[in-house]
Amino acid sequence: LQSLKKQESAIDITLKLPDDTTIPCHKLVLMAASPFFATMFQSDMKESKQPKVQLGFSDAATIRMLVDYFYSGNIVITSDNVMDLVAASEFLCLADLKKQLGSFMTETIESANCIKLYMLSHKYSLENLIPPCLKYILSHFSEVFRESDDFMNLSEEQLVTVLSDDDLVAQNEDFVFHSVVRWVKADLENRKGKFVQMAALIRFPFSTQELLGHVSREPLTLNPTCQEIIREAVSAYTGRKPHLVQAYAYQRTVQQQSPMPVYYGHQSQTQYISVTEQSVEIRSTVGINTQKTPWSNNLTASKTLSAVSKFFLSASGIHWIDYNGSHNHWLADSGKNVIQFWVKPTRSDCTFSFIQERVYAFGGKVGGIDCTNVESLDQSKKQWKPESPMLQAVSTPYVVHFDSKIYLLGGVDSKGPALFTQEFDPVWGKWQLKKEMPGICQLGAAISLNDDIFVLGGSENVCFKYTPATDTWLILSQ
């Protein structure tokens, strides 16, 4: 066949390509290779009677490659041409070649391309590519959805398939929730009504208390169905066992790692904690009558708080690092103290925070120079893992957890006290610079309350209020 084509012997059809070049061919060869050409030449279509046929379904190079494949049975598939070949094979109804192309792409699956390949496999019915793509997405869910924005182009049906699969590997449901919210907001007008269906697939009982503490503030959840699902998840933490309307009330596959206890407090309680050099005291109350519950001494310095080098809070309690290199975690819910794994960071003057069940270290000094380094403590590998760096290099910044974001306020840089407001999204690893603080506050404190963040006290004896929703600062006292 190749010889006949090369010699242009018994040619009975000429293909005209998009670049105006031509390929002399044989109708029988084209008809035997492709149902598309078989239909064209055996029907009453005008092309069946013409000596020359114009083709425009692909570029000229791809069409030439396919015609050579018809005559030789051989084709070179590369990462550069595979997408064009898939589209052309679909047009020409080349089932066997599509299968080869699917097998080729199976060997190239990685975090950066697996969602794109998954969508492609559905579009062109590449049945041998769909299962390995889905398996990779499920087993690398967080990595895949963080590394590429392609997931926002998934169809509703494709996303439902992923979310409803028990093999989806997730340490908790926080990232699943944030992924669904981002998918909906990528096309809010058309997808807003689909959030309720998606929310039913999120296994809220296995999310963190951090998420449950602010999820009701997300506008997409402000409907009776979502509020009921969230109420059930909160009830799970308070020990009640309501009738579950949520279809998925059992845990997914969880990544294997070293044991790390996680405890959750009662959502219906307000807890007040007093920390001094001698003790940690707690007062809990239900409702707003805070004066009727006496303070109780839960921890004493002789047992736990002696020689504290670092101190920080989380939704589940208090954390401190002692000079012996131990990470102490006092659990507000049970009053117990748990010793957790700890590795000392390689830099000084960083600020710690407990976010999504991991300890983060922000900023600090390396060789005496302020840095932008951010790291999280990987419990499974027992080492600090690099995260997205800050936008401004500072040491000892205030760190405040507000909704799903982290705010780094002030700190010290090479010029002295800094006024930076840096917003960090730990879900997606993104940083933004916000409006600067209106003044200096050294050796003070920063807290979040309701819709605002307050920076107060310090040697300047100030009180500043920051509202993240409007990115505005207000001086309350100076």
UniProtKB/TrEMBL annotation:
Pfam families: BACK (PF07707), BTB (PF00651), Kelch_1 (PF01344). Coiled coil: none annotated. This is BTB domain-containing protein. Residues 11-79 form the BTB domain. Signal peptide: none annotated. Keywords: Kelch repeat, Repeat. Gene3D superfamilies: 1.25.40.420, Kelch-type beta propeller, Potassium Channel Kv1.1, Chain A.
